[in-house]
Every structure is written in structure tokens, then in C-alpha cells.
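[User] Once you have settled down, look closely at the record that follows, and write a paragraph about the fold.
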Amino acid sequence: MVKKRNLTKEKIIEKAFELANEITLENVTFQNLAERLNIKYPSLYNHFKNMEELKTYMTISLTKDLNTKLMEQLIGISGEEAVRIFARVYKEFAFDNRTAYFLYINIRNLKSEEVQNLINTTSAIIKQVLNYYVKTEDEIIHKSRALRSMLHGFISLYFLGYFKNQVDLEESFNIMIEDYIYGLNR
């Protein structure tokens, strides 16, 4: 049982992600989250104004985690290997946080300054990876859009139930990334 004095935003966020994995994010409410935490649901209002604020904090937590993983994996890496690592970490992160990935792809809808700062950090990581290949800001934006679109498209189609044939999913992903790198090297 979670006692009120031990209830923190972090514990609530953790339980909200767990619950979302079981019943989908759209079905998480303060009532069923409170039940999961073994508290009365009005106690949640001591930490979050409403579900939208909770989702904003969930997004902040998720994006911090992604940025940390990317930075840890990319330290001292550049060129082709940096693109491969970025793509792999991003895909693994989405697959490990499948339910929460919906929050991440809707991040632009949030009006939080902290979320904006985290988006800017993710963009800076991508820019650093792509600086090896392209030098102008316009080129970096184009290549960043292509990379993000490609990764999100692959992940989304997989989550929607596509890619069920006999061909190895990982091999398809690797071919896609190698084709992208080939395009960067032209």
C-alpha cells in the first residue's frame, strides 16, 4: 500500500505508465490510477491538476529518459556509427515504451516550457549526429526531418500491426538505416 506521505510525482508517473501498458493510455483515469496506488483519487490532485498535467509530466519523464540514453550511447561517436546508434536507441526506446511512445509523438501539442527545452535537447543531439555530414542549417533540418520521419514511420507501422511476414524485422530496419546513411554520403 502506498501511504500518502510516500506518494510522489515520480511514483504516480511510474504507476501511470504501468497502468497504461495494461489498459492503454486513453483509458487511464485518476480513479483507476488511485485504485492501482491504493489511495483515494482526490489525493492525486495534490500532485497534478488533472490528467493533462499528468500526461505532460509523463512526457517530460519519457523525453528526459530518451535524451539521457541517446547522450550516453553517443559519447565520442560520429559519422555512420552515430547514425546507427541514434536509430537503434530511438527504436529500442520506442519498443520498450510502446504505450508511452504515443505521448512522445504528440509532444508538440504540449504547452510546457520544460517539454520545449527537452525537444530542443533532442534536436541538438540529432544536429550533432548530422553535423558530420552536412554543414548548413537548412540541410541539417532536411536530413533531420527525413531521419525522424523514417524512424517514426517504421515504428508506427510496426505498432499498427504491419510487418507480419517472414522477413526479419531487424534486417529491414538495418537496411533502411544503411540506405539513409548511403544518402548522407552522396
